[in-house]
Design goal:
heterodimer, A: mainly alpha, Non-ribosomal Peptide Synthetase Peptidyl Carrier Protein, Chain A, 60% helix, B: alpha+beta, Aminopeptidase, 8-stranded mixed β-sheet, 8 helices, globular
């Protein structure tokens, strides 16, 4: 789970053009000004590529914070 | 929530009322260039309260167009509008479109939740077989949204649309019910 979260943070930092250190532990679009809806969708596409998964519609609408993203990916990978 | 037709996690969809056409920001959204920038023909002409009422009257009993207002679940605030249009009951397809008009909601998950609910309505409630979407090729948002929800680009009308001084493509997207079901049963 921690490794997944680290990967999510790396991808997010890359998309937002920030360093990993600039991404707070509880990162969400509410906290990070640059995390807008387009960046969010690009992040989700990158996550699907990185982890070789396709999120369901239900999961897509749950990917609201770094913690939730890591949790959902972790659950998906453990089920596959 | 007021008369919800479909309920999401943070938003819900409901049928518009005459009161919405007369006394909400619905009509003003479609004169705002920031809202209409990537929309079709509605961005060229100003909208008025009177034309919004006419639109409401023309669609309220329509069987080939389902118009729904997008509302905040907590506050009931109107945040946008979505619709299934050109519903074809023989071939069972329709166009989907949505607008998150209130700026403070554009950053959040409202567009994704709305599309998720509209696909559920189209495929499971209305028994449609294909949902189509079309967007101007300069639109940075819609192709990404479509891709996330499994739409496939199926073609383009080249240099069809005038967009700020140049002619650009109209991109056609399509999602079949079988693809939608496969993806949502993936896990």
């Amino acid at each position: 789970m921690q490794k997944i979260k680290e990967n999510v943070v790396k991808l997010l930092a890359d998309i937002l053009d920030l360093s990993v250190e600039d991404i707070p532990n509880n990162a969400s679009p509410d906290i990070l000004e640059r995390w807008d809806s387009l960046k969010h969708m690009l992040l989700v596409m990158s996550l699907e590529q990185e982890f070789d998964i396709k999120f369901t519609d239900d999961e897509l609408t749950d990917l609201l914070t770094v913690d939730l993203i890591a949790e959902i990916i972790s659950e998906r990978l453990s089920n596959d | 929530m007021i008369n919800p037709y479909a309920i999401g996690k943070k938003i819900y969809l409901r049928a518009p009322e005459l009161e919405d056409a007369m006394n909400s920001s619905w009509y003003a959204w479609f004169s705002d260039p920031e809202v209409t920038m990537y929309l079709g023909d509605s961005r060229y002409w100003p909208n008025t309260k009177e034309s919004q009422i006419q639109f409401y009257e023309s669609t309220k009993n329509s069987t080939d167009r389902l118009v729904l207002l997008i509302c905040d679940k907590n506050s009931d605030e109107l945040i946008g509008v979505c619709n299934l249009s050109e519903i074809n009951w023989v071939h069972r397809h329709a166009f989907v479109a949505l607008v998150i008009a209130e700026e403070k909601y554009r950053k959040g998950p409202a567009a994704m939740e709305t599309l998720s609910l509209m696909l559920e309505i189209a495929f499971n409630r209305l028994n449609l077989k294909n949902v189509r979407a079309a967007h101007i090729s300069t639109n940075p948002y819609t192709p990404v949204l479509c891709k996330l929800f499994g739409f496939k680009e199926v073609g383009r009308f080249e240099k069809l649309l005038y967009f700020y001084g140049e002619y650009v493509d109209s991109v056609q997207q399509q999602l079949s019910r079988s693809d939608w079901r496969d993806r949502n049963q993936a896990n």
